[in-house]
Write a structure and sequence with these properties.
Shape: globular
CATH architecture of one domain: 3-Layer(aba) Sandwich
Largest sheet: 8 strands, mixed
Helix content: 10-25%
Strand content: 35-45%
CATH superfamily of one domain: Alpha/Beta hydrolase fold, catalytic domain
Length: 750
């Protein structure tokens, strides 16, 4: 029996059986306590803001209907509440139980409630399901879609001008339904099976954050929508080997680097006649991306953002909704790439200006652009990045945003006048860590959540701009009490010098009673790609507690952010890895590890491990293959061994086109250096991962075998990129990871 099969199939079950001994709650963490009993899960607090002055909504346990929830309206100032919709009102005719609310929306006058229920997963999110409407005036509860089969509707929305009209997507077409007459009209017509209306293909959703693909006009007379045509996009095939007696083929269109993209365009369909006018956006529709689209503060024009295929130019376009004529009013350029996911567009001054976030002057900052594009003014000055724009309060002429000018590992709320003056931090100075905010439409209130790496979230309702706490919503006191009983590891954030005047951010989780005279193994948790940052001072949930558990057992756990991650350290920091993803990053990681081994004599330089997921899985492979004498052990989960196998939008954004950067793609791909493996390697992948395909893992295994390199492997059948589907999957995976470390990187102290 091959070693990889033994490790992957037998050993995890042996360890799992041993873990079934139920330990009494005490000072030590265990896999069972973290992942099976969920003993240390934190509670969140969510609310839904209504229109200015209407307060907010919550779903709360019903006093009248068993195992159901009412929708409750709150006054933020007083805390007074009233039941807006009783659970009993949500029981369909002939049924015994109320509908389970996955999400819901109201009309502005609160007379109609739109309910999303019975949801199904589409790629990463549950975006398909059933929609019902409750008429609060007469109590009528009706299902949308007519005789449509269950869980086939997507993105249902009330008309902003007619509370009796709802539009939705069904089977890649857009429909509008009249609630009074029951009439259902199809507004789009798919010319072929490859056409998608009102929603998106795989790559647009994953890499541009787009799923809901249509927008009502403010006057309710038209709908603007995206249309994609996947004709010519190569198909990806996966096998579901779990259900049934024969494997089931899963096929979908997926454009890998250098391959053909879908044709994208934007149209406006008029409700009166069902005719679509297509916006005359210039260029080859297969070689640009319509990354953002919405109505331009009226019902006559759209604002469209057009990225070129290299994604280093973004044209902001005004389009006439009636004629389709277009005009470019603003062009953003970058020598590397532009990230539209950090963009923020809000109209102010009754449509005279819009906001735009750009990195064009070295830092991610907010600009005001006039409607005709002739006037562009920067609002945020100084050498700091906007991490996230939250709200423009036009009444007070101010902007609220998240930033951390002095420490890239933290997150704070700032407020600045739209004239660029009166910059002020609002987050409390005695709360070091990460702050997030859900601000009300009138910017008078916010739901504020604070945490750090040692302290779980606390959520308060605050008043703005004073940041005065009105009431505590969730303190997670039960969790805090449990954490206090643990033998707590010590956490610390620090910077590491890696040469040439450069420093990288890092954090360490240290054993509770570390003896500096002894030696401890080092485990590095890595991501390292341009899509994320690991060194953020926030509560880490179950993953962080797994690191705590390892620290209790005698491991030192660290994480390091190399150049090229999303850290708010300026455009130069982030874009330095352009066309060399995996190359510069792994060099920075290795330099930082070498330095901490010098700085901390208690670390055993012969016992260094590394692990990561997705881009972190790729970085783990790069670490082991490129620096085989530095890293002894690695756990690589769902990696991209060959960058040529990943999608166009993500990989080309950071690497350029394969034909123009063949050496970069080759040298940035871990598979190129697989022959150098010396240490112990555990490979983990889901066999139906639609994001990072199992195909890449198969090619890597083939290369390792060809070079006589031994490894261990665990393939999870019919699991996706998150490897969380199926009973006990997460516990099984973490058990396998823990067992592998115990065998290959013995815990300290030595």
């Amino acid at each position: 029996m091959h070693r990889c099969f033994l490790s992957a199939v037998l050993l995890p079950f042996i360890v799992l059986a041993a873990d079934k001994k139920k330990p009494e709650p005490g000072p030590l963490l265990s896999l069972e306590r973290i992942y099976e009993k969920s003993e240390f899960s934190s509670k969140g607090y969510s609310l839904r803001w209504l229109e200015a002055g209407q307060g907010y909504l919550r779903q709360e346990k019903s006093k009248e209907t068993k195992d159901a929830q009412d929708i409750v309206q709150y006054d933020p100032a007083t805390g007074k509440k009233k039941v807006l919709v009783e659970a009993a009102a949500l029981i369909p005719k002939g049924k015994m139980k109320p509908l389970k609310l996955s999400s819901y929306t109201f009309t502005k006058d609160l007379s109609r409630l739109l309910i999303f229920t019975n949801t199904k997963r589409v790629w990463r999110r549950n975006t398909r399901g059933d929609y019902w409407v409750l008429n609060r005036d007469n109590g009528k509860l009706q299902k949308l879609g007519g005789k449509a089969t269950e869980s086939t509707l997507m993105f249902a929305k009330f008309s902003p001008a007619n509370r009796n009209q709802v539009a939705y997507v069904r089977e890649k077409n857009i429909y509008v339904e009249n609630l009074e007459s029951g009439q259902i009209r199809v507004l789009t017509n798919r010319a072929s099976d490859t056409v998608i209306n009102g929603t998106f293909d795989w790559v647009y959703e994953e890499e541009l954050g787009l799923r809901d693909g249509f927008r009502w006009s403010p006057d309710g007379k038209a709908i603007a929508y995206w249309q994609l045509d996947e004709e010519g996009v190569p198909e990806m095939n996966m096998l579901n080997n779990v259900s049934g007696y024969y494997p089931k083929l899963i096929s979908f269109r997926y454009p890998k680097t250098g391959e053909t993209n879908a044709i994208g365009r934007v149209g406006v369909v008029q409700l009166k006649d069902g005719k679509t006018t297509w916006m005359k956006v210039p260029g080859d529709p297969r070689n640009h991306y319509l990354a953002r689209m919405d109505w331009a503060e009226n019902s006559d024009e759209l604002l469209v953002q057009q990225l070129n295929r290299l994604q280093n130019q973004n044209k902001v376009i005004l389009a006439d909704a009636h004629s389709g004529e277009v005009k470019t009013v603003y062009t953003d350029k970058d020598k590397a790439w532009i990230e539209v996911r950090f963009g923020f567009t809000q109209w102010i001054g009754k449509g005279k200006q819009f906001t735009y976030v750009s990195e064009r002057e070295g830092w991610r900052q907010l600009y005001l652009v006039s409607r005709d594009g002739k006037k562009v003014r920067k609002v945020t000055e100084g050498k700091y990045d906007i991490i996230r724009t939250l709200k423009v309060d036009e009444a007070s002429n101010v902007l609220y945003f998240i930033a951390s000018p002095d420490n890239a590992t933290e997150r704070y709320l700032y407020r600045i006048g739209l004239d660029g003056k009166r910059l002020k931090r609002l987050s409390p100075v005695d709360q070091t860590g990460s702050h997030s905010y859900n601000i009300s439409p009138d910017a008078k209130w916010a739901l504020h959540t604070f945490s750090n790496i040692d302290s779980p979230p606390v959520t308060n309702l605050i008043e703005l701009p004073s940041h005065k706490v009105i009431r505590v919503m969730e303190k997670n006191q039960d969790l805090r009490d449990k954490l206090e009983k643990l033998k707590r590891p010590k956490s610390e954030f620090f910077r590491v010098k890696i040469g040439n005047g450069l420093e990288v951010d890092a954090y360490a989780v240290l054993p509770p009673h570390l003896d500096p005279k002894k030696k401890y193994p080092l485990l590095v948790y890595v991501y390292g790609e341009p899509a994320g940052q690991t060194t953020v001072n926030s509560w880490r949930g179950s993953g962080g507690l797994w690191h705590w558990m390892l620290a209790q057992q005698g491991y030192v756990v660290m994480s390091i952010d190399n150049r090229g991650t999303t850290a708010p350290r300026g455009n130069g920091w982030r874009k330095s890895i352009y066309r060399q993803v995996g190359i510069l990053a792994s060099k920075d990681q290795a330099a930082a590890v070498k330095q901490v081994l010098k700085d901390r004599p208690y670390l055993d330089a012969s016992q260094v491990g590394v692990w990561g997921w997705s881009g972190g899985g790729s970085m783990t492979l790069n670490a082991l293959f490129r620096y085989p004498d530095l890293y002894r052990v690695g756990i690589s989960i769902a990696p991209v061994p060959n960058q040529r196998l990943y999608d166009t939008i993500y990989q080309e954004r950071y690497m350029g086109l394969p034909k123009d950067n063949a050496e970069g793609y080759k040298n940035g791909s871990p598979i190129t250096f697989a022959k150098n493996l010396k240490g112990k390697l555990l490979l983990v992948h889901g066999t139906t991962d639609d994001n990072v395909h199992y195909q890449g893992m198969a090619k890597l295994i083939d290369e390792l075998v060809a070079n006589k390199k031994q490894f261990e492997m665990l393939a999870y059948p019919n699991r996706s990129h998150s490897i969380r589907e199926g009973r006990n999957t997460t516990l099984h995976l973490r058990t396998a990871m823990t067992d592998f470390l115990r065998r290959t990187l013995p815990s300290g102290p030595q």
